[in-house]
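Before relying on records like the one below, remember that each one covers exactly one chain. Contacts with other chains, cofactors or solvent are not represented anywhere in the record.
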Amino acid sequence: MNDQERILTAQWIFERHLAWIAASEVKVGAIVAIDTAMLGGLGAAFSSIKASSLTPCAYVWVVGAALALAGGLLCAAMAVLPRVDGPEKSLLFFGRIGQLSRDDYSAQFKAASVEHLLDDWTAQIHRNAQIAGTKFAWVRRSMWFSFLSLLPWFPALVLLLKK
């Protein structure tokens, strides 16, 4: 494989990683929408009933559902937090590019060797793989909290709406 093919391959891998990062954030959008709706439904049902008519069992279900949904939302928030620490010196990473003047960046880019650009691409690919892994780990936790919240959420609604 020649240098041009290596750079093209690195660009392709880099773009795939960016797509995976974007995919994790799309999943978070769905989780947040569902969890927020479930929490809103729980809150509406809870506010429509007198506290004195609630049984301790109902409180347990409501608190369990609310905590699980809050856990799902917290994990979703952790998934979408920007992770902007990149390679120390980079002609690709926006954080490092933005620290340079336009002229300095242009001069450094024009002077970069193919080997330097390949090192830069691979460092950024590696960092994006770490970011994608972290984001998907938080998405996974968020999904588990959301799925687990169904167990107390449904009985909580039944008990709240039954009154």
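The CA atoms of residues 79 and 139 lie 6 Å apart.
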